[in-house]
Amino acid sequence: MSSQPTRWNWTRRVFQSVSVVFLGEFAFYGVFRCPFAVPYVSCGNCPVVQCPGRKLWIPVWVIILVSGLAVGRAFCGWACPAGLVADLLGKAALIRGKVRGQVEKVLAAGKYPLLAAAFIVFTYWQNPRWAIPIRTGDFFGSVRLTVEHANPLWVLRTAGVVFALALGVVISHFWCRYLCPTGGALDLLNRVSFMRFRRSASCDDCGKCRDVCPTETRPAESNCTNCGDCKTVCPVQAVEFGRGPSSVERSEC
Fold first, then answer.
1. Residues near 145 by Cβ (< 8 Å), separated by ≥ 6?
2. Three-class SS string for the chain?
3. CATH number of the domain at 196-252, out of 3.40.50.2300, 3.40.50.720, 3.10.450.330, 3.30.70.20?
4. 203: which residues sit within 8 A by CB, 6+ positions away?
5. How far from the centroid of its chain's Cα atoms is residue 112's Cα?
6. Structure confidence at residue 10 as a pLDDT band (50, 70, 90)
7. Less Cβ around it within 10 Å: N or C end of the chain?
8. Bridge-partner residues for 240, per DSSP?
9. Taking a C-beta distance cutoff of 8 angstroms, is the pair 172, 216 a contact?
Protein backbone atom coordinates (compact mmCIF):
# COMPACT_ATOMS: atom_id res chain seq x y z
CA MET A 1 0.00 0.00 0.00
CA SER A 2 1.33 3.42 -0.86
CA SER A 3 2.87 5.56 1.90
CA GLN A 4 2.44 8.76 -0.09
CA PRO A 5 0.72 11.66 1.72
CA THR A 6 -3.06 11.26 1.86
CA ARG A 7 -5.91 13.62 2.65
CA TRP A 8 -5.57 12.55 6.29
CA ASN A 9 -1.87 13.50 6.34
CA TRP A 10 -2.54 16.88 4.76
CA THR A 11 -5.36 17.56 7.22
CA ARG A 12 -2.92 17.03 10.06
CA ARG A 13 -0.41 19.36 8.42
CA VAL A 14 -3.07 22.05 8.16
CA PHE A 15 -3.88 21.71 11.87
CA GLN A 16 -0.18 21.87 12.73
CA SER A 17 0.34 24.94 10.57
CA VAL A 18 -2.60 26.75 12.16
CA SER A 19 -1.24 25.86 15.58
CA VAL A 20 2.15 27.34 14.67
CA VAL A 21 0.43 30.62 13.77
CA PHE A 22 -1.26 30.80 17.18
CA LEU A 23 1.33 29.08 19.40
CA GLY A 24 4.62 29.40 17.52
CA GLU A 25 5.73 32.65 19.17
CA PHE A 26 4.70 31.35 22.60
CA ALA A 27 6.71 28.17 21.99
CA PHE A 28 9.74 30.20 20.86
CA TYR A 29 9.61 32.46 23.91
CA GLY A 30 9.39 29.44 26.21
CA VAL A 31 12.69 28.09 24.94
CA PHE A 32 14.68 31.26 24.26
CA ARG A 33 13.22 34.00 26.48
CA CYS A 34 11.38 32.44 29.43
CA PRO A 35 13.38 33.31 32.57
CA PHE A 36 11.95 30.48 34.67
CA ALA A 37 13.57 27.10 35.27
CA VAL A 38 10.44 25.36 33.94
CA PRO A 39 8.90 27.30 31.04
CA TYR A 40 5.22 27.69 30.12
CA VAL A 41 3.89 27.25 33.67
CA SER A 42 4.55 30.57 35.47
CA CYS A 43 3.45 32.93 32.74
CA GLY A 44 1.09 34.87 34.98
CA ASN A 45 4.09 36.17 36.97
CA CYS A 46 6.45 36.59 34.04
CA PRO A 47 8.15 39.99 33.52
CA VAL A 48 8.54 39.39 29.77
CA VAL A 49 5.54 41.52 28.83
CA GLN A 50 5.98 40.85 25.10
CA CYS A 51 5.40 37.11 25.48
CA PRO A 52 1.95 36.02 24.24
CA GLY A 53 2.03 33.32 26.89
CA ARG A 54 0.83 35.82 29.48
CA LYS A 55 -2.62 35.48 27.89
CA LEU A 56 -2.36 32.03 26.35
CA TRP A 57 -0.83 29.82 29.02
CA ILE A 58 -4.00 28.93 30.97
CA PRO A 59 -6.16 28.22 27.85
CA VAL A 60 -3.31 26.21 26.32
CA TRP A 61 -2.86 24.02 29.40
CA VAL A 62 -6.62 23.51 29.69
CA ILE A 63 -6.70 22.42 26.05
CA ILE A 64 -3.75 20.06 26.58
CA LEU A 65 -5.34 18.50 29.67
CA VAL A 66 -8.80 18.10 28.12
CA SER A 67 -7.38 16.75 24.86
CA GLY A 68 -5.15 14.37 26.83
CA LEU A 69 -8.15 12.89 28.62
CA ALA A 70 -10.18 12.77 25.40
CA VAL A 71 -7.66 11.67 22.75
CA GLY A 72 -4.43 10.98 24.61
CA ARG A 73 -1.25 12.38 23.12
CA ALA A 74 -2.95 13.83 20.04
CA PHE A 75 -1.76 17.35 20.94
CA CYS A 76 1.79 16.24 20.14
CA GLY A 77 0.85 14.94 16.71
CA TRP A 78 -1.68 17.59 15.73
CA ALA A 79 -0.95 20.90 17.48
CA CYS A 80 2.47 21.10 19.15
CA PRO A 81 4.81 23.49 17.27
CA ALA A 82 7.81 21.45 18.41
CA GLY A 83 6.06 18.37 17.07
CA LEU A 84 5.87 19.94 13.62
CA VAL A 85 9.58 20.84 13.76
CA ALA A 86 10.33 17.26 14.82
CA ASP A 87 8.20 15.92 11.96
CA LEU A 88 10.13 17.98 9.42
CA LEU A 89 13.54 17.08 10.86
CA GLY A 90 12.52 13.44 11.14
CA LYS A 91 12.05 13.19 7.39
CA ALA A 92 15.83 13.53 7.07
CA ALA A 93 16.68 11.29 10.05
CA LEU A 94 19.83 9.26 9.42
CA ILE A 95 18.77 6.42 11.71
CA ARG A 96 15.27 5.04 11.25
CA GLY A 97 13.92 1.81 12.67
CA LYS A 98 17.18 0.93 14.45
CA VAL A 99 16.23 1.88 18.01
CA ARG A 100 13.84 -0.85 19.14
CA GLY A 101 13.27 -3.42 21.86
CA GLN A 102 14.70 -2.83 25.33
CA VAL A 103 16.88 0.06 24.17
CA GLU A 104 13.79 1.91 22.96
CA LYS A 105 11.95 1.20 26.21
CA VAL A 106 14.82 2.46 28.36
CA LEU A 107 15.26 5.63 26.31
CA ALA A 108 11.50 6.28 26.18
CA ALA A 109 11.38 6.13 30.00
CA GLY A 110 13.62 9.21 30.11
CA LYS A 111 10.54 11.44 29.79
CA TYR A 112 9.28 10.47 33.22
CA PRO A 113 12.29 11.49 35.37
CA LEU A 114 12.28 14.84 33.55
CA LEU A 115 8.55 15.19 34.19
CA ALA A 116 9.12 14.44 37.89
CA ALA A 117 12.04 16.90 38.01
CA ALA A 118 9.95 19.65 36.41
CA PHE A 119 7.19 19.02 38.94
CA ILE A 120 9.63 19.22 41.87
CA VAL A 121 11.27 22.41 40.57
CA PHE A 122 7.86 24.02 40.08
CA THR A 123 6.29 22.98 43.38
CA TYR A 124 9.11 22.74 45.91
CA TRP A 125 11.61 25.23 44.48
CA GLN A 126 8.89 27.66 43.38
CA ASN A 127 10.16 27.63 39.79
CA PRO A 128 13.10 30.05 40.23
CA ARG A 129 14.18 32.53 37.58
CA TRP A 130 17.39 31.54 35.88
CA ALA A 131 17.53 34.40 33.37
CA ILE A 132 17.17 38.17 33.19
CA PRO A 133 14.42 39.11 30.71
CA ILE A 134 16.29 41.81 28.81
CA ARG A 135 14.36 43.72 26.14
CA THR A 136 16.41 46.13 24.06
CA GLY A 137 16.68 46.49 20.31
CA ASP A 138 15.29 43.97 17.87
CA PHE A 139 13.70 40.63 18.64
CA PHE A 140 16.72 38.41 18.06
CA GLY A 141 18.99 40.97 19.70
CA SER A 142 16.95 40.50 22.86
CA VAL A 143 17.39 36.74 22.59
CA ARG A 144 21.17 37.20 22.33
CA LEU A 145 21.25 39.44 25.39
CA THR A 146 19.13 36.98 27.37
CA VAL A 147 21.59 34.19 26.59
CA GLU A 148 24.59 36.37 27.45
CA HIS A 149 23.25 37.41 30.86
CA ALA A 150 21.44 34.23 31.92
CA ASN A 151 22.35 31.88 34.73
CA PRO A 152 24.52 28.96 33.48
CA LEU A 153 21.69 26.59 34.43
CA TRP A 154 19.35 28.43 32.07
CA VAL A 155 21.90 28.28 29.26
CA LEU A 156 22.40 24.56 29.89
CA ARG A 157 18.66 23.94 29.88
CA THR A 158 18.11 25.88 26.66
CA ALA A 159 21.10 24.34 24.90
CA GLY A 160 19.94 20.87 25.96
CA VAL A 161 16.47 21.36 24.49
CA VAL A 162 17.82 22.78 21.24
CA PHE A 163 20.39 19.99 20.95
CA ALA A 164 17.77 17.30 21.62
CA LEU A 165 15.47 18.79 18.97
CA ALA A 166 18.37 18.94 16.51
CA LEU A 167 19.15 15.27 17.20
CA GLY A 168 15.92 14.63 15.34
CA VAL A 169 17.97 14.61 12.13
CA VAL A 170 19.78 11.55 13.50
CA ILE A 171 17.05 9.73 15.43
CA SER A 172 13.56 10.80 14.45
CA HIS A 173 11.73 12.82 17.16
CA PHE A 174 14.52 12.35 19.69
CA TRP A 175 13.21 15.09 22.02
CA CYS A 176 9.57 14.05 21.73
CA ARG A 177 10.21 10.34 22.25
CA TYR A 178 12.79 10.38 25.01
CA LEU A 179 12.89 13.69 26.89
CA CYS A 180 9.80 15.91 26.59
CA PRO A 181 8.08 16.20 30.02
CA THR A 182 4.76 17.23 28.47
CA GLY A 183 4.99 14.23 26.17
CA GLY A 184 5.59 12.05 29.23
CA ALA A 185 2.48 13.37 30.96
CA LEU A 186 0.39 12.88 27.83
CA ASP A 187 1.84 9.39 27.35
CA LEU A 188 0.39 8.48 30.74
CA LEU A 189 -2.98 9.95 29.77
CA ASN A 190 -2.80 8.09 26.46
CA ARG A 191 -3.30 4.85 28.37
CA VAL A 192 -6.62 5.95 29.85
CA SER A 193 -7.86 8.39 27.22
CA PHE A 194 -11.45 8.19 26.04
CA MET A 195 -10.55 7.74 22.36
CA ARG A 196 -7.38 6.64 20.62
CA PHE A 197 -5.94 4.79 17.65
CA ARG A 198 -5.46 1.09 18.32
CA ARG A 199 -4.95 -2.24 16.59
CA SER A 200 -7.80 -4.64 15.92
CA ALA A 201 -7.69 -8.43 16.04
CA SER A 202 -6.91 -8.53 12.32
CA CYS A 203 -3.41 -7.10 12.94
CA ASP A 204 -0.76 -9.48 11.56
CA ASP A 205 2.27 -7.62 13.00
CA CYS A 206 3.60 -6.68 9.56
CA GLY A 207 5.21 -3.54 11.01
CA LYS A 208 4.07 -1.13 8.31
CA CYS A 209 2.50 1.12 10.94
CA ARG A 210 5.83 1.44 12.76
CA ASP A 211 7.68 2.07 9.50
CA VAL A 212 5.49 5.06 8.58
CA CYS A 213 5.07 6.37 12.13
CA PRO A 214 6.94 9.65 12.81
CA THR A 215 7.83 8.42 16.31
CA GLU A 216 8.48 4.85 15.14
CA THR A 217 5.89 3.13 17.31
CA ARG A 218 2.59 1.32 16.91
CA PRO A 219 -0.97 2.43 17.76
CA ALA A 220 -1.64 2.76 21.51
CA GLU A 221 1.97 1.94 22.40
CA SER A 222 4.48 4.27 24.09
CA ASN A 223 5.07 7.50 22.13
CA CYS A 224 1.96 7.05 19.95
CA THR A 225 0.73 10.58 19.26
CA ASN A 226 -2.58 9.48 17.72
CA CYS A 227 -1.55 11.23 14.50
CA GLY A 228 -3.29 8.55 12.42
CA ASP A 229 -0.61 8.33 9.72
CA CYS A 230 -0.51 4.57 10.24
CA LYS A 231 -4.19 4.15 9.38
CA THR A 232 -3.61 4.88 5.70
CA VAL A 233 -0.87 2.26 5.23
CA CYS A 234 -2.20 -0.79 7.07
CA PRO A 235 -2.69 -3.52 4.43
CA VAL A 236 -5.34 -5.34 6.49
CA GLN A 237 -7.08 -2.21 7.83
CA ALA A 238 -6.31 -3.22 11.40
CA VAL A 239 -5.81 0.35 12.66
CA GLU A 240 -8.98 1.74 14.16
CA PHE A 241 -10.01 4.79 16.19
CA GLY A 242 -12.20 4.04 19.16
CA ARG A 243 -12.74 3.73 22.89
CA GLY A 244 -10.82 1.60 25.35
CA PRO A 245 -8.20 -1.10 24.66
CA SER A 246 -8.34 -3.08 21.44
CA SER A 247 -8.66 -6.82 21.29
CA VAL A 248 -4.90 -7.02 20.62
CA GLU A 249 -4.12 -5.09 23.80
CA ARG A 250 -6.52 -7.20 25.87
CA SER A 251 -4.90 -10.41 24.60
CA GLU A 252 -1.46 -9.04 25.52
CA CYS A 253 -2.50 -8.27 29.11
1. 134, 136, 137
2. CCCCCCHHHHHHHHHHHHHHHHHHHHHHHHHHCCCECCCCCCHHHCCCCCCCHHHHHHHHHHHHHHHHHHHCCHHHHHCCHHHHHHHHHHCCCCECCCCCHHHHHHHHCCHHHHHHHHHHHHHCCCCCECCCCCCCCCHHHHHHHHHHHCCHHHHHHHHHHHHHHHHHHCECCHHHHHCCHHHHHHHHHHCCCCEEEEECCCCCCCCHHHHHCCCCCCCCCCCCCCCCHHHHCCCCCCEEEEECCCHHHHHHC
3. 3.30.70.20
4. 234, 236, 238, 248
5. 13
6. confident
7. C
8. 198
9. yes
**Residues 6+ away with beta carbon under 8 Å from 175:** 82, 86, 161, 164, 165, 167, 168
Q: What is the pTM of this model?
A: 0.90
pLDDT in tens, 201-250: 899 999 999 999 999 999 989 999 999 999 889 999 999 998 866 555 55
The angle subtended at Cα 63 by Cα 190 and Cα 61, nearest 5°, is: 95
Please classify residue 140 by burial: count the beta carbons closer than 10 Å to its beta carbon, then call 0-12 exposed, 13-18 middle and 19+ buried: exposed
Q: Where in the chain is the domain with CATH 3.30.70.20?
A: 196-252
pLDDT at 74: 96
Give the tens place of pLDDT for each residue, 110-156. 999 999 999 999 999 999 999 987 776 678 888 889 999 999 999 99
Measured over all CA atoms, what is the biggest interatomic distance in the chain, rounded to whole angstroms?
Answer: 61
